[in-house]
Amino acid sequence: MFKTTDEQHWEHINNGLWPQTQIFRIAINPNNSQNIFIAESHGLYRTDNGGASWYKVLPTNPTLDRSCTDVCFSPDGSKLYAIGPSSNFFAPPFSGIGFWKSENDQAFVEITPGSGYPHAGAPAQGRSLLAVSAAEENLIYVLSYDDGPTNNYVYKSINAGAIFTVTNGGNSIYTTGANTAFNMLIRCSDVNPDVCFAGWQDLYRTTDGGQNWFYKAGYGSTVHPDFHTLDFNPNPNYFNKITTGSDGGVYRSDNLGDSWLNMNQNLGLAQMFRVASNTYNTNVIVGGIEDEGIGYKDPETSRTYWKTTQNAYFCDGGLVLASPFKSNYFVGGLAACRYLYYSTDGGLSFPGASGYYGGSAWIAPTVNHPTQPGVLYTMRHGTSFPYYSPYILFKSTNYGSSWFVEEEFENTVDYNQSPQALAISASNPNLIIFANGNGSDFWHRPNELYKLMNDGNGNWSKTLILTGGQYPVADRYFTHIEIDPKNENEIYLTVSGYGTGHVFRSMNGGVNWSDLTPPNTLPDNPTNDLIIHYTSSTTKELIVSCDVGVFRTDAQNISWQLVASSLPNAPAMDLDLNRLSGILRTPTFGRGVWEVQLDGTTYVQDVLYITDHYCPIKIYRIDVTII
Length: 627
Prior knowledge:
Blueprint: E1 2-3, E2 11-12, E3 23-29, E4 32-40, E5 43-47, E6 55-58, E7 70-73, E8 79-83, E9 99-103, E10 109-110, E11 129-133, E12 136-145, E13 151-157, E14 165-166, E15 174-175, E16 185-188, E17 196-199, E18 203-206, E19 214-217, E20 227-232, E21 242-246, E22 249-253, E23 261-262, E24 272-278, E25 281-289, E26 293-297, E27 307-308, E28 317-322, E29 330-334, E30 339-343, E31 366-368, E32 376-381, E33 391-396, E34 404-409, E35 418-424, E36 431-437, E37 448-454, E38 460-467, E39 478-483, E40 491-495, E41 503-506, E42 514-515, E43 527-534, E44 540-546, E45 549-554, E46 561-562, E47 576-578, E48 583-588, E49 592-597, E50 602-610, E51 618-626
C-alpha cells in the first residue's frame, strides 16, 4: 500500500498488513479521509489514521485468513458493505468472509441466505463484487458466481441489503468457464440507478434496474474481451459517457455502450509472454501475445506493428523459440489451449504440429538440441488427476512440425505438479534438467529439479537433484533453468515470489547451491528469465528479467545493475539475445516488446551449420569477436 498527499511523493503504508498482499479494493469514508478500508486476500482491514497502521476487522476471528474481494461505503457514508467468497467456497485461503454490513460504524452484521443472497440455486459463492449509486442511498448490487457451473448472477437490494432479488428474472446472466473470477466488473450509474454494467469476457448492460441485461461489447465486437473495470464520466451532464478497460486496453463510449472508440491506436499495450528473433536476421521477431495468439514483426511486411500469424491467431500466445540452425524457422505454442505450432517463413504462418498429446505448463517447456539441426525436446504430462502421470519427453527431428515420444517417466510422488521449465546442456546434450511444480498457490508444494540422463543408447534416467526450500534455494516457483554452454555442472535457477533470493547457482551439477542475490543489489521481486552472455572466451555476464526491470552482473563478481533505463513499469517476462547483433529484447506483460543494443564487443563462439537442400551439410567452427 502506498499513499500520496501531493501527487508526487509516495509513502509506503503497510504497517499491520501482510508482507505479500493482494488488494482488491480501497474504500475511503466520504466523511473522514483518515478512515479507510481495504478488501484484501487475508480479510477486511481498517485504518483510522490514514494508513499509518492497519488492523483486521473481518473475519471476526482475526487469527483466520479469509479472502475479502470487495468493500464500499454507501453514498452518504453511513453504511459499509464488505464481501468475499462464501465460507464453503473451496478451502482456505480461497474461502472467504461471506457478506457483511456495518451501519454508523457499529459492529458488522452478516447478511445471510435468508435475505435472498445467495439464493438456493447457488449455494457456494466465489469472488464477489459490489456496486452502489449516489442517486439512491439504499441501493446495492452484488455480482457473484456459483462455484460449480460458474454461472454468474447479479443480485439487487433497494433496502440496504435487508432483502435481495436475483435480477434477470432469477436467471444467471453469464457463464464464465475457465475465466471464472479473472475478468469481473460491476458498476452502477450515479445519475440513473437503473443503469448498470456487468462484465466478464463480454460486457452487459441493464437500463431497467436489472430486469433485462443485454450484450454491449466483447467477442464479436470491435472491443477486446475480458473486462476488468468500467467507470462513468463524473460530470452528470455527460453521464452517458463511459470508459472501460479490458485485456485489450482502454475503450470509450459516448452513448452507454451502443458504440465504442478504441483509445489504444498509438499505445503499445500488448501483454507478451515470450519473444524470439530470427538467429540470422534480428529484425524478424515473433512473440506470444495474451489473447492474440502468436504474432510476428518483419520490417518488410509489418514495419511498425505486430501482425498475428495464420493458424495460431487465437487463444493466449505463449511459447516461441527460434531455430539456431535455419533462418525463419520457429516453434510456438498457445498457452491456454496447450497447442504446439511451427513456422518455416518467419512467422507469417504457423501450421499446427502433430504427434504430441497430454497437457503442459502454461508455457510449454521446449528446447532446441544444441548440435543436431531440427531436433527439439518438449515435456508434457498425462492428464489424470492428481499426479498427472506420466511425464512425457517428446522429441522432434523436423523443426517441430511433428513429435514422437522419446521417454515416459511415471509419477506417483509429485502431487498435482508437472514439468514447468526445461534446459539442455550444450557441452553434453545427453543431459537435460527440468523443473517440476505448479504455479497455483492453492496447490503449492515445493518445486523440484530433476536431472534426465541418456546413456547414449536411448535409455533415460530421472534423478531428483533439488527441492525448493533446500537451503539456500527458496521455496518458491521455479521460473527458469540455464546450463553454462561450456560446463554441464554449472547450473543456474531463477525463482518467483518475494522475501528470498531469486538467482541461484550450482557448480557441481546441483549438489550444492549458492544465492547470487546479495542484499541491496537485485530488487526483491519475481525473477522470470536468465541468460549467460559470454563477453570473451573466458569472461561472461548474467542477465535476468524481473517484474521491475532487466539487470546484469559479472558472473564472478556479483553486483547487479540495470542493463538500461526507460523500461516501462511492467513485468519483463523473458529475454532474447540475438548473438550476432548483440540486441537484447524483453517482452513485457502490458507494454509490448522492448530492445537495447548491448555495449562492448560481441563475442561469438559457435558451430555454423549450412543445412539447406542446395548442398550437403557442412560444419565449420567459428570463434569471432566483433568490435
